[in-house]
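Throughout this review, each integer encodes one residue's backbone shape. One record appears below.

===
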Amino acid sequence: MSETPKPRDVVATAVQNLVVSRLGRGFIPLVVMFIVGVVQGFTDSGSGGLILSVGSVASAAAMLAYGLRISERTFARPHRAWMSWAMWGSLVPPLFAVYVLGWRGLRVLASGGGAADVGVGIGFAVMGTWAMRSWTKVVEVERLARVMTMDLEGRA
């Protein structure tokens, strides 16, 4: 005879699946920016490639830690020291996305170069927007998890 799962476990599993889905989609622009950063690091003399490659890895790590924090809290696991670091690290993905969108994308478009510069500017603007949108989806899952688990302790 199978045991009926507890409501918290059902909700936590659903939240965990949502977090994994959102993180998977969010890593796509970060991987693209990492590859562009590595290529720029070898071809350009500036620090733009280094910022792109390190920023994308830092953003991916911060998003992963934050997603794990959401999952751990939804399963009602005890608070650990790394969870505080993950909370502070959650500032990295939006800051990096704003850098890519604004500095690498919109600034290049506003400076008015040739067709290649316009294409690069649009590409960075799209990648920055995609990264920011992916990050906001992860934050939305955290809010959803909080609301869904708010009163589960009182139920059996």
About this structure: The two ends are 19 Å apart (CA to CA).
